[in-house]
Amino acid sequence: MELDAAGRSYPAKPSDVYLYATCLVDQFAPEAGLDAVRLLEREGITVHFPEGQTCCGQPAYSSGYPDEARAVARSQLDLFPEPWPVVVPSGSCGAMMRHHYPKLFEDDMVLGPQVRALAERVFELTEFLVHVLHFAHPDRGEQCTVALHTSCHARREMGCHETSSALLDSLDQVDVTEQARVEECCGFGGTFSIRFPEISEAIVSDKVESLRACGAQKVVSADCGCLFNILGRAAKLDQQAGRASPSLEGEHIASFLWRRTSEAPR
Amino acid sequence: MSQPINFHPVESFKERGRSVVNDPAQRKNFRSAMDFLQGKRRAQFPERQELEGLRDLASAIRRYSLAQLPTLLEQLERNLTANGIQVHWAENAEDANAIALDIARRVQARKIIKGKSMVSEEVDFNHRMQEAGIEALESDMGEYIVQLAGEAPSHIIMPAIHKTKQQIAQLFSEKVPGVPYSEDVDTLIQVGRQVLRRKFAEADIGLSGVNFAVAETGSLCLVENEGNGRMCTTVPKVHIAITGIEKVVAKLEHVPPLYSVLTRSATGQAVTTYFNIITRPRQPGEKDGPEEVHLILLDNGRTQAYADAQLRATLQCIRCGACMNHCPVYARIGGHAYGTTYPGPIGAIISPHLRGLDQTYPLAFASTLCGACTEVCPVRIPITELLVRLRNEAQARPDSEDATLRGSGAGRTKLATAVWRGWSLVYSRLGLYRMTSWSMSRGRALSPIDQGAWTRSRTPLVPAPKRLRDLLRKRRK
Amino acid sequence: MRARERILGRLRATALPHPPEPPEVASWYAGRQRNETRPQQIERLRSALEAARAEVHDARDAAWPAIVKGLAEAKGVRRLLAGSGSPDAARLAQALPAGIELVCFDRPIDDWRDELFDTIDAGLSRAKGAIAETGSLILWPDAHEPRTVSLVPPIHFVLVDVGTLHPDFHTAMQAGRWAENLPTNALLVSGPSKTADIQQTLAYGAHGPRELIVLLIDEEGAGK
Questions:
Q1: Choosing among B370, B447, B455, B456, which should be mutated to test the A contact, i.e. which has the most A CBs within 10 A?
Q2: Potential cystine with A36: which of A254, B115, B330, C42 (Cβ 3.0-4.6 Å)?
């Protein structure tokens, strides 16, 4: 068992894990999910994808609809019958399952204990790669400079900014540069971006600007929500400026890691 | 100087936010101010362990005080009274102003000089006094500037943070007789000093806030840098202090850790210039100090927060402002947009109790829930959790047991309720989800170019041709 | 029912039955003691004060009146305010030249408010103690040395005996048993008056003294 800085304990390397891909990855970024599977399988782990998975329920939870969130969360609880770790390629959804599920079912005498036990074995992908699998693979890619954007939930609820950056640091040919105000939110905030579009736009525009200015060739993140927000904004600005090639590129960290460390670089 | 009360109806929050967001000069002001304050705070806490230990201690002190709040308030009252300080209780703003007016009339006061007090802003003290024919003049430099401009503070620690020195130079040259336009900050401060020095000497009453009220000794503690707080509490014949009922601490020895974490979190100072402990009015033989000292203890909705085991944490606040200094939303829209006395994250969680959730619920939604506020809060208020709780309350069925606050359910709409019910149905029924997500992938070519608020600022989100579950199924074959 | 009873009634109805354990303030401070020597403490005090833009001078007890005189002359002080009947005032009176008038605070402020505000250039007071960690002077005004001596004049001279140094605020408070004997008004002063209310630009001399001049009185020369 290993302890991280925040005192969380980690299991020894398991034979099997569940992948909880999240609704965004399933529908909008399946390649990132596939690369997460590849990263895990390479370590000799059997990855199970419960077909019943839909969404963790966070959108309703953070929008102030706890009953609706609970109904969705309830439908996910029985997807993980074996005591295997549940790996989530998103700090935000991981935090929902790990920290907020127990609160949602706090008063439930029947489901409460089940939820708490499940929460204990939910891991964000990068923390799992670092603390459980001790990720160490030679970097086969070309020299490049990247910036890391860590989602606020990954950073503040899961403490995963350190694991993401440890993974990038383990790649010899990758220089990690830091954008200004690296800890600041990208302005997505789920339904916040829809409710307060002008404020959200102001925040994400500043994020795009700081990422463009920091000298990185691309931004890497372990959360699709932030990536879609940041890259979508950058692309819109490019359109408006009539730029033919993107001024900011980005990639999910699972894809970035797999691409650089797999036998046949893509 | 006769602006209406610092409160705007809830509907105009978005508009006010928009007007700042679309003003590059204001955006730049706020950005540099926030960067400055964040940097100063960071420098005060080089060691994470010390910071977290101090936050634990400060939080424990505040929770300990609140747990025995009624007992401590009675002890405070007893000890203050024994010390010769008169204690008054106010349920709301009207009570508080009436108490102050009674005192003012009894001593035939015409001029009140004010030290910084957000509670006095909360009760709209200045305008109520003015209506009664009494001058109430702010003496904190930032407060003086915003009062001169006919505005309200936009930050609880730095009231004039939204103003540039050019704007202040312009303001002084227009409003202060005989002052030429100068952008030199030292010159501007000396103008304030000269004007207000006279006012301290002339005032009949000094009004101040309170940072900590100590039950054990019957003392009022004030934290400041300028010296105007000391002037207001020392020079006039009468001193009136006004504070929320939550500001009490049990013991004098609880003060040093709170003071330390307050100044370091607020402005990144190890200590302020002055720390002022007031325990009595002028005693026989003493040659200065007020002859009368009064304390007004204000509820104004705080007992509602107190009644709820979760929301009670709101009252732990020591008003450092670190939550607003680190809030990405506050940094973009500034304090005035909130339309409440207390802006930023703390404003979003305290204002519903002061004003009713019906008047304030949009503030609870005006957050990305990024947690920066919670991370810096020196007394560990779980601000993001409380924001989510207030969102729940805002949309609860008004007749349900989830609706526990004044104004609960005010943000509930039929449309939003139906949308989230539908969403919940799709994502909790696998068949429905499969069908919906499958058709989204199949019909990706038909994905709308206009996705409303999303595509206002971003390119459209387009589903992948195959879902992850499809790719995995294919891979297994 | 009065407001008091209604407020307390609401609080009582919802107060928790068992308050949490008292916070362990003393042990927290005990755990972070630096255990510095007196000279180290003096240096810590000095550097904190200087960082806050106070002027700090070392003095033997016999020498401080002459130092104050020299500084007052250099700064153009014409009227210098001190407490009444204090030995410090008497000693300073001996040292001051004809051009500098020593004003004793021997009447209630109400009798000479305008004169105090408009004509006094400097004040002299003696600190009860000091706090090394934050560079704070502990002032304990009384009938002889009123509160406004350290507040209204633009220049404030303070005498501090280095023997009264404490490592931190909590320790000073506990050692002096403040909870049992607080005066009408107790103060910590940690520099000249200042403000950053205009565009976060620091400016000195907001409402209190523009200059804080500290004389560290050290008979053993431990601070040297």
A1: B370
A2: A254
